[in-house]
Every structure is written in C-alpha cells, then in structure tokens.
Write a structure and sequence with these properties.
Structural class: alpha+beta
Largest sheet: 9 strands, antiparallel
Strand content: 25-35%
Helix content: 25-40%
Radius of gyration: 29 Å
Mean pLDDT: 82
Low-confidence stretches: 1-8, 430-436
Number of strands: 24
Length: about 550
C-alpha cells in the first residue's frame, strides 16, 4: 500500500501565523471568535497526524502564550484597583465612608493593585520567554537537568529532538502527558531512567458562595527523580490520571508508586539522611535488576516463536538476546561483517504493512548497522516484493532488534522503501542510494574546521562557530566550509563533511553537502543538494554531536 495520502502536502496555519489569526479573530469577533478558533485548531491538528511539524516540545513552549490571558487579568485588575483608590481620594466624603467600611483594608487597595500588576508582568514575561526564547524555557531547563552533564548540553533544538523522537516512535498520550520509552513530557520533561517515584494526587475542593456550591477536582501526577526534584503535571480527569499511572507502571516499573502525601512520598522527597537515601537507591537498583531479568526472560520466551538463520547458514529456534548481541559484535572480533536474519512464525503488522523477515548486517564499532525489514508477500514461503531499510548506530540497532524479538516494529520515518530486483533490492525511486554502507564519523577522533579564504584550520571548534560560518557561505568558489576528523594513529584514515553554495546551473543558490571518507575499497565521496542552510546545518549537527548521519538521500559523486 503506497503512502500517497500521507506524503502529499497538507495545508494548515503554521507558527506564528496561527497565533496572529487567533488574535485578529478575537479582536474583530470577540467572544464569537471562540468556535472559529477551536475549528482552526482542530483542522491544524488533523493535518498533522504524526505530531506537530515543529515538534512536541516546541509546541508546548509556544502554548505558554495562553498565559498572557491570566497575565492580562492580573494587570487589568491591579490597574482598576489603583484607579479606584485614586478616584476615591478625589472625593473626601466617599473616602471617609470607605475607610469606615473597610477599615485598614482601605489602605491595602493600592498595595494589592501594585502586587497584582507585578504578578501579571511576571506571568507575561514567563509566557513570552518560553514562547519566543525556548532555550530559556522551564521545559528546556528540565531536559538539561536530566542529562549527565547539564553544562555541556547541546543547543535547544537538539534537546527537544531527543524527547520528540522518543515520543514520535514510542509515545503514548494520556491527555497532555506523553510517555515514551526514554522520556516523559508533561508540564516539564523527566527522563525515565532517573525517575525514582511516581505519585497520583486526587483532591476535591468545595467552595460555597451564598446558595451556590462550586466543586473543583484536582488530578495531578507528581514525578520525583534521583535528585529529589519534583515535577507536576495537571490532568483533566480521573481517566487520564489512571491511564498515565498505568503506562508509567509499564515504562518505569522499578519506581515507587503511591499517593501524593503518603509515607512513601514523604520518605522519598524529604529524606535528608545519606544512609536513608543510599538505602532507597540500592532498593531501586535491586528492583530495576529484577524487572530487567524478568523482561529478558519474557523476551526469550517470545523469541522462541522465531527462527534465527546464522551467518554460516545454520538455523536455530533457541534464541536469546546474548546470541543476538554476540552476532552484532562479531565484526569487532573477526573484522568481517556477516548478515543474519530472524523470521517469526506469524508475520508482524505495523502501520498498514505486514513484515515477515528481518535481515541485519552488523557494522562493528565504526560502521553503521544495516537492517532490512521485508514485507509479507501474502503467501507463505514466497519472498516479499517490498522492504524497508536503514543504517543505524549499534545502540539504535539493539533497540530495533529487541523490539523485533517482542513482536514490535519501529517507526518507519527515515527508512528507505525498497523493491526486489532479482536477487537484490533497489530503492523505489530508481537511484542507487543506500546500497553502500557509508561510514559514520568516529566518536573519538578530534574535529578540525577549515573555512575558505582563511589559512589553516581550527582545532576542536564549537558548534556555534560551525553554525555561524555555515550561515556566512556565499556563491563564491572561495567560500566553503569543511568539518573533518582524522585518525590520530593513522592520519591517512579520515572522515569529513563539507558545504558550499552552488553558483551556476539548475541548482544555483542551493547548498551542496558532501561527505567523504576512506573505506576498505578506497576513497569515496557522496553528495546531496539541499535548498537552505538550515537543512545543511542538520547534517553538520548530526556529525558534530555523533548522532547517525542520515545518508539515505545522498548519491555517490561521479568522477
């Protein structure tokens, strides 16, 4: 089944035009604009079925603009209070009556008004800061706090991408709370391996005003991490709260669960004694090890419904994760990459596709791992016509293989669809891309930056320097940028990514991104034209931060 419907361009209002339209509608139609604004918001969400284009985190920070409404209420209320006090001062008779009725509270009116204005200004500042400067937002800071070295955290785009990617591939949404395998996104973000306690809070507040009684229900999820930091997310209903706690039970089973204000909560949050904190951490690690052992046992039991074909052609149905892990590491030990495959007894269904076979070509420490997922032909024993392939890092490949053993299929975003061509495969667009496993940058080699028009190169450049020089590129033969690394033990072994702006031909004005390296078959050079500097910077950023560089859209340069 082709993805024509999902691949066609969809129309919706993007940031900041959606906010501008909402403001104009509210100014012109006032309260009657609410149904139209809700309709536009529904349409925007419908046109982005795979999540917001800008990402969940950025959408969350921009949504803080709604705080301007509360800020405006405080500011207007404070101004009215001060105006009322000033007007009363001009009417001595009325002022005397107010002093008698309100007593000392009369003189608090301007103080409370000034306080309300200050609160409103603070709320407005915080809303505008989070929406317009997401790198300074509370959400971005919460992600930094979860990293091993917060002071060395990457730029905010990379921070948000870590959370967005996890939620896009593995996320389950309970109201506004998104729960992935690595991150939880609520009002702030929590990294699941660092969660030590999860507590639900359900309260009912009753307020009487004359003959009327107002009841307000409070539903919150409180998350406590290994540094006793607390993060609170408010939900709308009991159902959302129960769904969130149930999902968190499955994603963070070793954490302590309970109710807000319980003894478990107080012990975890308020304990100051180092011995007690050490005992709590040790108990957590024991629970985590027990759950990990149980999960591996269940994995191995489910894997017995599959058949593993080893590199030497032998077949076995006794599959353990240790066996798969050893096959992934085999190139590091023997120096040769040999494929293996897994075939389930019953094909797996995901995203409208049914998969009947996984083929893995390990790459070792320096080469990417290539995985191919073959679609089921519909007839047992008959090879499938289509497949999906992608080059992954060793860690990403382990995640995919673990999921396959449990009967799970990864998100196909970023994968290349292939068609069978004789005894091999070819991409559906007819190019030869992705046929050669292009090496990724080495995580331990130092970087050097060379900029056209300058003598020499800069060792260990910062990402800010690289991004700044990329944006300064112009259509000139002497304007180029090269980010390269060499093996300190063998300077002839190298990897680089370079960029220049095309000055003529049909691609004039576009950015030419080229990746070069030394392979066992000799030097190679791959290239791709991208329309703007932002897309070119994405490849440089992936290389600089040692994330897998997506080469599926690159073509081998013709000599």
């Amino acid at each position: 089944m082709e993805r024509e419907e999902t691949s066609r361009k969809r129309f919706y209002l993007k940031w900041p035009w959606n906010v501008i339209v909402y403001i104009l509608l509210a100014a012109v139609l006032r309260i009657f604009a609410i149904p139209l604004i809700l309709l536009i918001m529904w349409w925007n969400k419908k046109q982005q079925p795979d999540g917001p284009e800008e990402g969940y985190c950025l959408q969350r920070t921009r949504g803080r603009l709604t705080g301007l409404i509360l800020a405006a209420i405080f500011i207007v209320g404070g101004c009215l209070a001060i105006w009322f006090f000033a007007m009363a001062q001009t009417m001595p008779y009325e002022a005397e009556h107010l002093k008698e009725d309100l007593s000392f509270g009369y003189y608090l009116i301007p103080v409370l008004g000034a306080g309300a204005i200050l609160v409103g200004l603070f709320l407005a500042y915080r809303s505008l800061r989070d929406a317009l400067y997401p790198e300074k937002s509370a959400l971005a800071q919460s992600i930094r706090d979860q990293l091993p070295y917060p002071d060395e955290a990457p730029p905010v785009k990379e921070l948000f991408a870590m959370v967005d990617q996890d939620l896009k591939q593995n996320g389950q949404w309970c109201g506004k709370m998104g729960i992935g395998k690595e991150w939880v996104l609520g009002d702030e973000a929590s990294r699941i391996p660092r969660i030590r306690g999860i507590f639900g809070r359900v309260e009912q507040h009753t307020r009487h005003a004359g003959e009327r009684t107002a009841v307000k229900h409070l539903y919150e999820v409180w998350i406590v991490d290994d540094k006793q930091r607390r993060q609170v997310t408010s939900l709308k209903s009991q159902t959302e709260l129960e769904e969130a706690l149930d999902c968190l039970h499955r994603r963070a089973p070793a954490a302590v669960f309970g109710s807000y204000g319980s003894r478990e909560y107080n012990d975890l949050v308020y304990s100051k004694e180092e011995e007690l904190q050490y005992a709590q951490e040790r108990a957590y690690r024991n629970r985590a090890a027990r759950f990990e052992k149980q999960s591996r046992r269940e994995e191995e039991q489910q894997a017995q419904n599959q058949v593993l074909t080893l590199p030497d052609g032998s077949v076995t149905s006794r599959i353990t994760w240790d066996t798969i892990h050893q096959l992934l590491r085999q190139p590091d030990q023997t120096g040769e990459a040999a494929p293996f495959q897994l075939v389930p007894g019953v094909p797996f269904l995901r995203e409208g596709h049914t998969f009947s076979r996984l083929v893995c070509l390990p790459g070792g420490a320096q080469e990417p791992v290539r995985i191919l997922l073959e679609e089921y032909s519909g007839t047992p024993g008959v090879p499938g016509r289509y497949a999906w392939t992608r080059d992954l890092t060793a860690g990403e490949a382990e995640t995919v293989l673990r999921g396959w053993l449990r009967g799970e299929i990864p998100s196909l975003d970023g994968w290349t669809r292939m068609e069978r061509s004789g005894r091999t495969w070819r991409p559906l667009d007819g190019t030869d891309k992705a046929h050669f496993p292009l090496p990724q940058p080495h995580p331990d080699w130092p970087w050097a930056l060379t900029v056209g028009g300058y003598a020499g190169s800069t060792a260990d450049p910062s990402w800010q320097d690289i991004e700044e020089k990329l944006r300064e590129l112009v259509t000139d033969p002497d304007s180029f940028l090269i980010l390269e690394q060499k093996d300190p033990q063998n300077l002839e072994n190298y990897w680089f990514i370079q960029c220049a702006v095309a000055s003529q031909g049909p691609d004039a004005g576009k950015y030419a991104v080229e990746i070069g390296c030394l392979t066992p078959g000799g030097p190679c050079l791959w290239e791709r034209m991208v329309p703007d500097v932002r897309e070119a910077a994405k490849y440089f950023s992936d290389a600089y931060y040692h994330r897998p560089v997506n080469v599926s859209d690159f073509q081998e340069a013709q000599n």
